[in-house]
Write a structure and sequence with these properties.
mainly alpha, globular
Length: 437
């Protein structure tokens, strides 16, 4: 992934198209013209996304199919395409601008520089959270002064994200990387350790970036939406998607699931719309059938949970003890499912994914394998840091006079956190996982 002059020209072109399309959509009274202008915006944005991100994916699929049906082994045709950084994120931001204007949810920006700043706002540009124009552009119109900036909040977010990324995600990455580089060398126990390590890595890596983006944006006087809400405490898959990558899940809900028909109509139609949304959500993450499988499995899990909630759980009443056991079991099942499906998200090939899944659920003895002490320590650090981090934020938000709100106390916490990051951080820099999307 990289920047190049051609891409800069294309993004400038798409910015101009969306800006003027939005103005014309708002100005015209003709529904036919409104739809035509919206279609132009969709074609330009999705066309760029399809070309850069999915051209070689479809060519590879055609190559494989031709290899199956042809006696000569088929073709092996690819294009030399460099994937621009963060194209999936700002494409969705551009789309929601014209779509919201079309449905009358916002008025167009009167200033192209204002709109360009929305498209190119750098803190969250390459890995989210996905920002909606109707939330961001009104903030540009406010007179924000230096004294209005909440430096304490900005520092809290940024340092919390830095700890997640540098201290936890980067340190645990070698454990998961070792598994996914050669799955055949691992038994069941070691495979589970590697998979759980990746579950921790991707959460701390991605939520760490989001936290830092929120913190940097706050330094400029902007408020970005929360992108994570302790997703690994979810007791079912539906709850997980309310807490994981919130800006994407709500985007898919509002701009794909609901326009498809949402939950209106027959129950089967609802399940169809849900599955289409999750399949496309999986494909949004990457041009690979592994991502499609990952999205499809989550779609099936969401449907299964809805069926269970509608036709089974409503018929049962639990006592206090039974209810606690049920919640614990539900959480455990959810975490096993989420962790297992991360395999398809991380593995390079479907055969590697299937090999790891088999190792996880069909017992395979490990040879002289011991759980890395780093894994246990980092798991403990994540749980403790997460628990106290959330309590820390809640105390500050609920009571401005709390001891944690004292700037000297916060400065001491920041200093300690930075010292630990410098002491235990990895020497080699690990790129953020979501930079590839």
């Amino acid at each position: 992934m990289s920047w190049n002059p051609t891409f800069i020209v294309l993004i400038l072109f798409s910015t101009l198209v969306d800006f003027y399309a939005g103005k014309e959509i708002h100005a015209t009274k003709s529904q036919r013209k409104k739809r035509f202008l919206l279609i132009i915006s969709l074609v330009v944005n999705l066309g760029f996304l399809a070309y850069f991100k999915y051209t070689n994916f479809f060519l590879d699929s055609i190559n494989q199919i031709s290899g199956i049906v042809s006696e000569n082994g088929g073709t092996n045709f690819f294009l030399d395409i460099v994937l621009p950084v963060g194209i999936s994120f700002y494409t969705f931001q551009s789309l929601c601008y014209t779509i919201d204007i079309f449905y009358g949810k916002m008025k167009p920006s009167k200033n192209i520089f204002e709109f360009s700043l929305y498209i190119s706002f750098f803190p969250q540009l390459v890995a989210g959270p996905i920002v909606r124009a109707r939330d961001f552009i009104p903030q540009l119109k406010k007179n924000t002064f230096f004294t209005d900036i909440n430096f304490q909040l900005a520092a809290n977010y940024f340092i919390m994200g830095l700890v997640k990324k540098v201290l936890i995600a980067d340190n645990i990455a070698p454990i998961s990387d070792a598994l996914f580089s050669d799955p055949s060398q691992y038994g069941t126990l070691s495979t589970w350790v590697g998979v759980m390590a990746y579950s921790i890595q991707i959460y701390c890596d991605f939520s760490g970036y989001s936290d830092m983006a929120i913190g940097v944006a706050a330094l400029f006087g902007f408020k970005l939406m929360e992108n994570f809400n302790m997703p690994y405490t979810a007791s079912n898959v539906t709850d997980f998607w309310r807490k994981w990558h919130i800006s994407l899940s709500t985007w898919l809900r509002d701009y794909l699931f609901i326009p498809l028909g949402g939950s209106r109509g027959k129950e089967q139609t609802y399940y169809r719309n849900l599955m289409i949304t999750m399949l496309l959500g999986g494909l949004w993450h990457g041009a690979s059938w592994n991502f499609v499988v990952w999205g499809g499995l989550h779609g099936l899990a969401l449907i299964a949970h809805k069926l269970y909630k509608t036709h089974v759980s409503a018929k049962f009443q639990f006592g206090n003890l039974a209810s606690s056991v049920y919640r614990l079991a539900s959480w455990a099942v959810t975490m096993v499912f989420v962790s297992a499906t991360w395999v398809f998200f991380r593995a390079q090939t479907f055969s590697d994914s299937w090999s790891i899944i088999k190792n996880m659920f069909l017992f395979k003895k490990s040879i002289d394998y011991q759980i890395p002490i780093e894994f246990l320590l980092l798991l403990l650090i994540m749980v403790i840091a997460h628990y106290f981090g959330v309590r820390f934020f809640n105390k500050i938000e609920q009571n401005k006079n709390h001891v944690f709100s004292n700037p000297y106390i916060q400065a001491a916490i920041w200093g300690l956190a930075m010292f630990i990051v410098l002491l235990f951080g990895q020497d080699d820099n690990q790129a953020f996982i979501y930079f590839q999307f």
